[in-house]
Specification:
Layout: H1 15-24, E1 33-34, H2 40-46, H3 52-65, E2 68-69, H4 75-80, E3 85-87, H5 92-96, E4 103-105, H6 114-120, E5 124-125, H7 129-140, H8 147-161, H9 164-182
Parallel strand pairs: 1-2, 3-4, 4-5
């Protein structure tokens, strides 16, 4: 799930760093699905990170290797077919953790918010290609040492946000009552 911007202030993107290695990784019986942020290609071309020809070459290379570029309208459909998420800083991590499946997070040194911090604590972190590759190999071999921690976070989030619609309605009524008192 590569981000659209390489700006570290807003999360950064490791796409330029890892797309080649991930394309060349021996996936064997596994399949790589890449879901670039919808703004990624145009932004990378506009910022001279790559040319249109380079973009087309990358996509053609993926097609040749059987790598899928995901264009599902619903990210939830994609998550059903995803066993491991490799991601830069992204809001989809907070959604994907709800599947209970592993996440390999590739940090770019930006600040987080509380829910993201909680999510990251149950993720594998890869600061460079060597860490990403070894974590990927470990997970593909069936080892998942963070599974219990991740499932604990999932349980905690489910308990905390299980009644969120009720909390929203209560807050609306509370705000409405406070506004009536002020009149």
């Amino acid at each position: 799930a590569p981000r659209w911007s390489t700006d570290p202030v807003i999360g950064g993107s490791h796409f330029p760093d890892y797309h080649k290695q991930l394309s060349d990784f021996p996936w064997r019986d596994n399949k790589l699905i890449i879901r670039p942020h919808p703004l990624m290609w145009d932004n990378f071309i506009r910022k001279n990170i790559m040319t249109e020809d380079e973009k087309n070459g990358i996509i053609a290379g993926w097609k040749e290797k059987g790598i899928t570029v995901d264009d599902n309208t619903s990210i939830f459909d994609t998550f059903n077919d995803t066993d491991i998420l490799i991601s830069d800083r992204s809001s989809i991590m907070s959604i994907f953790i709800m599947t209970g499946k592993p996440i390999i997070y590739c940090p770019f040194g930006s600040d987080f918010f509380e829910l993201f911090d909680k999510t990251v604590s149950g993720c594998y972190t890869a600061n460079d290609w060597n860490e990403l590759e070894s974590t990927l190999r470990m997970l593909l071999s069936g080892e998942d040492p963070l599974k219990e921690k991740r499932l604990g976070i999932l349980n905690e989030l489910n308990m905390k946000y299980n009644h969120s619609s009720e909390a929203i309605v209560e807050k609306i009524f509370e705000d409405s009552a406070n506004n009536e008192k002020k009149r």
